[in-house]
Predict the 3D structure of the following.
Amino acid sequence: MKRIWIITSLFTATYAMAHSPTDATAKELDTYTEIKVFHASDDPNHYVKHVTIKRDGITYIDKTFDAQTDNRSLDIQITHPRARRKRIKRGMTILVEATCSRQGTLSKQVKVD
């Protein structure tokens, strides 16, 4: 009985520490657009693992990561393509989908500042 309790406690503690990314923002700068996905974690094995960014319903970025920028967020810089019509620009609304390496996904419509 004691063994079952210990296993259950370990599983519950690990489950409680896993969580989805909490928010996302987008900002257009001079030469790139910065996407920031917020996901607080001090554990290097617990991070934002996958991000998909869609513009006008079409996948613009689909990328897997092996670490976050810091213990608060993952920062993604998207260099502006030469063709202005293909850029993610200020005023656009994009869909950001971010998945935790352990559990949970954030799906959020983000207006680019």
Remarks:
- Residues 2-17 form the longest helix (16 residues).
- Strands lie at 23-28, 32-38, 48-55, 58-64, 73-79, 93-100, 105-111.
